[in-house]
Amino acid sequence: MNYTELLNELIEHSGKTVKQIADECQREYGVNLTNTYLSGLKTTEGRQASQEINIAIAKACGAEYENILVIQAFLDRAPLVLVQFLEMVKEMATTKHPFEKEDELTELLEADSELSLAEFICKSIKMGEIYRQQKREESEEKKQAKAFVITADVLKNLDILSEDELNTLLGKS
Asked: What CATH class has 3-77?
């Protein structure tokens, strides 16, 4: 989602008109915002307001986070590698990480405390690539295991293997 899409979503969910939002921004938050300018922001891809206006718009729309438009405007202008890094951090933060123990991640982060922010981002991107590869491999292993069980069931149902042969194949004694 880009800035323009987010702005339109916030305005739509607020249930207010552009004029009502512009008036509230002026009256309640002291920012100079006209409904013409706000309409232009809504319809012009790539056009973004100042931080002060973005915060006022978000507040007037009842957004959960007052900085949401500020952050989205930054993300729209940020270098692709930084956006990809932030997406990877989000993915890693919202899914189970590949480390066997919680301590392994803590040790890794503590060991890197002397890195510059740029070095940390680059190393994290590399770790994210490894993480994603591990997830792909795990997914492939699960598919193969499922196919193996299905094949074994088919062989059993076709009476190609005896019960003992099937148990040996499945690793059951």
From this structure: mainly alpha
Give the CA distances from residue 21 to residues 6, 84, 109, in Å, rounded to whole numbers and listed in that order: 15, 33, 44
CA-based torsion, 94, 98, 101, 103: positive or negative: negative
57/35 Cα distance (integer angstroms) = 11
Alpha-carbon span 173 to 169, nearest angstrom: 10
Give CATH 1.10.260 domain extents, the chain. Answer: 3-77
Average pLDDT, the chain: 79
Find out whether 4 and 21 touch, Cβ atoms under 8 Å. no
Whether residue 97 contacts residue 106, with contact meaning beta carbons closer than 8 Å, is answered with no
Tell me: the pLDDT tens digits for 10-61?
A: 999 999 999 999 999 999 999 999 999 999 999 999 999 999 999 999 999 9
Residues 6+ apart with CB under 8 A from 51: 70
Alpha-carbon distance of 164 to 109, in angstroms, equals 50
CA atoms 22, 23, 27, 33: torsion sign: positive
